[in-house]
Amino acid sequence: MNQSMMNRMDRKKEEMRNRIIDSAITLFDQFGIDEVTMDQIAEKADVAKGTLYNYFSSKDTVIAAYIQRSFYNHDRERIEEIQNLPNTQERLTFLLMTLLQGIRRQKALFEKYMLYRMRLTLSFSPISNEMESGLSSLIEEIIRLGRDEGDIRTDLPADLIVGFVEYILIAAIKPYYLQPETYDPQAAVDACIRLFINGSKSEKSEQL
């Protein structure tokens, strides 16, 4: 099989994948995530059920692919914005506030997605590229810049720090779902970023 034919097949697979994702999101918006079945997604996308399952094993994996695609579509511009910010604290603030904007637009979708991500993390199974959050490249760039500037320690594996930042994201966002009426996004983000940068030491112990 020549290269042009392989490229054409890859494009067709990507087109099919996007068609399934777009069909699912349309149905989720129309009927609600819990009410939509995989059969309905297959019908909406005009594909056989077996074909659908070749691409996605569940609604959760469709949602994860949609979120991942959304982040990847803006990766380059967001990395440029991150690189133009002066320090780790402002870069993390930008990342969390950007994420919160997306969550406010699609609250139910992100809730399902974050629960799915937590299940993946707690399964202790390796996470494939297809299951990556889409945030990884942005977090990795923040870590790289922070290490170059001496803000972030270099004696720990980068993937450990990436995982810790992802937990911080969840900690900053969770109160929005539990107490949306009183949720202060800036205060939640600031508290979580201070914990990441300064650790859990009290201000008094820092002064000693």
How many structural domains does the protein architecture include?
2
Tell me the helix content: over 70%
What is the global morphology?
globular
Write the CATH fold name of the largest domain. Answer: Tetracycline Repressor, domain 2
- Going by helix content, strand content and strand pairing, the class is mainly alpha
Radius of gyration: 20 Å
Can you characterise this structure?
Helices cover 75% and strands 0% of the residues. The protein has 208 residues and is mainly α. It folds into 2 domains: 1-56, Arc Repressor Mutant, subunit A, CATH 1.10.10; 59-207, Tetracycline Repressor, domain 2 (Orthogonal Bundle). Helix 1 crosses helix 4, helix 6 runs antiparallel to helix 10 (185-198) and helix 8 (136-148) packs across helix 9 (158-178).
Sequence-ordered SSE layout with sheet pairings:
Elements: H1 3-31, H2 38-45, H3 49-55, H4 59-73, H5 75-83, H6 88-105, H7 107-122, H8 136-148, H9 158-178, H10 185-198, H11 203-207
Helix pairs in contact: 1-2, 1-4, 4-7, 5-8, 6-7, 6-8, 6-10, 8-9, 9-10
Main features:
208 residues, mainly alpha, single chain, Arc Repressor Mutant, subunit A, Tetracycline Repressor, domain 2
Quick summary:
The chain has 208 residues and is an all-alpha fold. The protein has helices at residues 3-31, 38-45, 49-55, 59-73, 75-83, 88-105, 107-122, 136-148, 158-178, 185-198, 203-207.
